Structure formats: structure tokens, C-alpha cells
């Protein structure tokens, strides 16, 4: 798996490994997973994903035009209106493996009912409308350990203006 920085964004090759290979790569890289990430990795989307390269860019909710924050559906719509695309759901693990220099989070809180500090959420279509099912992945480094975590939220949850998201730049 090769990732390169070209112009704006990071080019990441996604979907090129089986679930077992991807899980082993995460283990070898000492990436920690929460139960929600494990649930997402078990989804059929990881059975035979299409291999492709995507150019990943980061935007904050504020940069997308929401200085007071916004719900996920509005954030995603604004990103699309600015020419960005949602990431394929399989992007999360590949992006976690590609980003090796993510700064350590300013706190060690792993679950607080809000977007965790220092996190990069991977913007992707939710796999289920069930609010109990994880909506996507986020990347975070806590106490020097890289994490790939899944998150849950409903469409009443307001994302803070400083929340960082990863999108595909076509």
C-alpha cells in the first residue's frame, strides 16, 4: 500500500486487501480498534471492496461554512456543494495506515458523547439508518498509540466547527 502527497491531499490506495489482510496490517502497525470499528470492519462492504486510489483532503466543519456547527447531513451536503465527495466506507483503515504522523490528542478521553479532540472523521455514507449501528470511522492518536475507532450518532447531533473531516477530492 503506497500513499503519496500530491498537490492538495494525500493519495491513498483503498480496497486492495482482503478483510483478513487488512486486519493483519492494522495489527502489525499496532493500531488500536474499538468495538464500533470492529463492527464496521465486519460489514459486507469489506468482503470484496473495489480497489482504487483516492485523494484525501481535510476540512473542518467551520471551513465548510458552519461557524456554529451543523448536523452531519448538512455538513456532507455542504462538502458536496464545494466539490468534495464522501469517502468509500473502506477508506478508514487504509487512511489510518497511511497517516503515520498524526499529532497526539490533547486529552486521553476515548468516549465522551462528543467528537473527540484531535480526531479526523472519515466522511462516508452511513451503512445503516439504525442509530445504534456505527456511522463511520475516525482516526486519533491517544498517548502515542494510533487508533481507528468507529462512532455512532444520529442526525440531531451537531458537529462542532473545529471538527476535522476527511473527504475525497475528485
Termini gap: 20 Å
Largest sheet: 8 strands, mixed
Calculate Rg over CA atoms: 15 Å
The secondary-structure class comes to alpha+beta
Count of alpha and pi helical runs: 4
Number of strands: 10
Instruction: Average the pLDDT over all residues and give the rounded result.
Output: 90
Describe what this molecule looks like in 3D.
The chain is of the alpha+beta class. 21% of the residues lie in helices and 26% in strands. The chain has 4 helices and 10 strands. It has helices at 19-28, 35-41, 72-81, 91-98, and strands spanning 4-5, 10-14, 32-33, 52-60, 70-71, 120-122, 136-142, 145-151, 158-159, 164-168. A hairpin with a 4-residue loop joins strand 1 (4-5) and strand 2. The two termini are 20 Å apart.
Question: Key features?
Answer:
single chain, about 170 residues, alpha+beta, eight-stranded mixed β-sheet, about 25% strand
Question: Which helices and strands appear, and what pairs or packs with what?
Answer:
Layout: E1 4-5, E2 10-14, H1 19-28, E3 32-33, H2 35-41, E4 52-60, E5 70-71, H3 72-81, H4 91-98, E6 120-122, E7 136-142, E8 145-151, E9 158-159, E10 164-168
Please summarize what this structure is.
With 170 residues, this protein is α+β, with helices and mostly antiparallel strands. The protein has helices at residues 19-28, 35-41, 72-81, 91-98; strands at residues 4-5, 10-14, 32-33, 52-60, 70-71, 120-122, 136-142, 145-151, 158-159, 164-168.
Amino acid at each position: 500500500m503506497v500513499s503519496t502527497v500530491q498537490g492538495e491531499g494525500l493519495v491513498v490506495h483503498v480496497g486492495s486487501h482482503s478483510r483478513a489482510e487488512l486486519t493483519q496490517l492494522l495489527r502489525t502497525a499496532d493500531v488500536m480498534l474499538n468495538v464500533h470499528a470492529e463492527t464496521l470492519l465486519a460489514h459486507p462492504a469489506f468482503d470484496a471492496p473495489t480497489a482504487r486510489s483516492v485523494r484525501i483532503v481535510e476540512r473542518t466543519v467551520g471551513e465548510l461554512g458552519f461557524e456554529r456547527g451543523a448536523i452531519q447531513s448538512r455538513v456532507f451536503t455542504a462538502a458536496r456543494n464545494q466539490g468534495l465527495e464522501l469517502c468509500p466506507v473502506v477508506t478508514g483503515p487504509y487512511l489510518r495506515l497511511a497517516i503515520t504522523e498524526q499529532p497526539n490528542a490533547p486529552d486521553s478521553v476515548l468516549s465522551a458523547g462528543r467528537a473527540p479532540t484531535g480526531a479526523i472523521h472519515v466522511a462516508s455514507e452511513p451503512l445503516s439508518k439504525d442509530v445504534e449501528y456505527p456511522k463511520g470511522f475516525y482516526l486519533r492518536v491517544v498517548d502515542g498509540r494510533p487508533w481507528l475507532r468507529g462512532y455512532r450518532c444520529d442526525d440531531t447531533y451537531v458537529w462542532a466547527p473545529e471538527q476535522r473531516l476527511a473527504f475525497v477530492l475528485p
